[in-house]
Amino acid sequence: MEWKLELILFVLLSVMAVFSAIMMVTRRSPINSAIFLIINFFASAGIYLLLQAQFIAVIQVLVYMGAIMVLVIFVIMLLNLQDESKLSEQFSYKKLTSLLLSVLLFCLLGFSVFFGFSGKFTSISGEAEKLGTAESLGKELVLAYSVPFEIAGLLLLAAVVGAVVLAKKSFD
Fold it and tell me: Is residue 169 situated within a structural domain?
């Protein structure tokens, strides 16, 4: 197997994504979990860029890392957790054992995927470069999925109107 820059970046970004996902789930502090979630979104956007899906990578950064994470941090700050002693980490042998077993599981999974797919996909189609662009995504949405796209838009509009009506009733 030839180690190209694209393969090295993919391995680094995927390891970063898996590591940040594990750290996000295992942290007790919600702020630390949110930071690891941002790192995970960054790694996912990098993988999308490697797959030539520029539009999805930009949406990943703008929508998820920008808007959604601001809302998550805002909700965490709204909760105003007073008792911070429960958020501290304590060492235990159960945590160490589960960490070692998780690492072993991911190593076995990685080896099986690596040796299962090595050498099977040597070339990529010329049409694959056009799949993730904004132009191809827009054409697909307008030509093939226009009715479900409009239905989803109407559902989102109804949800926004319902939220405004409920919020107005609660303030009155």
Answer: yes
